[in-house]
């Protein structure tokens, strides 16, 4: 019995004196690849690490990655090295080893990239409404911000719901797309206009040092690389047939409205608007314009082809916003137009008139200015006839 007790005591002493296991190495993880916008909690991070000890034993030890969440940015492509922490009560000599894993964030699809931007909700909805899947080949998208859409709706006295009800979403999206991948540097190097997927042409030029599309839409800072092309965020809606068709107002002749929009672009009035300036437009009703054409003995097409058409249209627009009540109280007065000629504001028979045209009704355009519908076409003083 005494021998057994002595043997047991010796074994206990030997075990107590035995050196603790030392870690030889920890397992290296294979890199993980995920698409841009993958949330940290959705990363496929390993929950354990197989630790190798000097006595050739192996053990799975839990790993906690939560402390490294700040080192990961789902919105930016690139490779991130994430360091985990041992999830044990007594780490012991694990302190000398740190579990690491590389996470490579690759571009997401263009549709996903657009959908993830809070400022592009209207464009993302229209892309979904188009019912088209463009991911089979590379495309470049020019996505207007929600603020750009709001500006457009204010100018034409409409709203998002009405626009969505009338717009051809597929045509609209295609008017904001190019075939292939075009980053900003490549667009800056183009000497000739490029053809949009809709068939329209888009011109890329420098305006005061900033790249603009058709002289109006500017580019917002944004990393737009996509798995199937490139996404640019722009600060104005590109005015295409799809837009003008959706914005047509029954009180205004559609052909005149289209021409009016074209002249806004070419004359710089639209640039004045999107850069924060306000305008007041005195726009003839459809009846007024029809009577004008009948009196001159010509069609709308013939008028719009005339060299003086631009001056006539721009003569109806003045810088700054003027409420009808303000004009009424301050009449008589003159206002400068975008043709550098003046309009005469008067009160005749207790009604507000611009030149000899009566103001029928007015619409506020929020931060953009005012639209006053009038009962005659205004003719610039320098235009003698339409022969």
Mean pLDDT: 84
Low-confidence stretches: 7-18
CATH architecture of the largest domain: Roll
**Ends: how far apart?**
133 Å
Shape: elongated
How many domains, as an integer? 3
Spatial arrangement of strands, main beta sheet: 18-17-23-22-21-20-19
Q: Largest beta sheet, briefly?
A: 7 strands, mixed
CATH topology of the largest domain: FAS1 domain
Radius of gyration: 34 Å
Q: Output the CATH class name of the largest domain.
A: Mainly Beta
> Count of DSSP E strands?
23
- The CATH superfamily of the largest domain appears as FAS1 domain
Strand content: 25-35%
What class, by secondary structure content? alpha+beta
The total of helices stands at 14
**Helical residue percent?**
25-40%
Task: Please outline the helices and strands.
Blueprint: H1 2-17, E1 23-26, E2 32-35, E3 48-53, E4 58-64, E5 78-83, E6 85-86, E7 100-106, H2 110-115, H3 121-129, E8 139-144, H4 146-155, H5 160-166, H6 169-175, E9 177-179, H7 184-188, E10 194-195, E11 201-202, E12 204-207, E13 210-213, E14 217-218, E15 225-226, E16 229-234, H8 241-247, H9 254-267, H10 269-274, E17 279-284, H11 286-296, H12 300-304, H13 309-314, E18 317-319, H14 324-330, E19 333-336, E20 342-348, E21 351-354, E22 357-364, E23 369-374
What are the defining features of this structure?
alpha+beta; Immunoglobulin-like; FAS1 domain
Commentary on this structure:
- The protein is an alpha+beta fold.
- It folds into three domains: 22-106, Sandwich (Immunoglobulin-like); 115-242, FAS1 domain, CATH 2.30.180.10; 249-374, FAS1 domain, CATH 2.30.180.10.
- It has 14 helices and 23 strands.
- The strands form six sheets. The chain has a seven-stranded mixed sheet. Strands 1-3-4-6 form a four-stranded antiparallel sheet, with no helix packed on it. A four-stranded mixed sheet has the order 9-8-16-15.
- The longest helix has 16 residues, at 2-17.
- The protein is elongated.
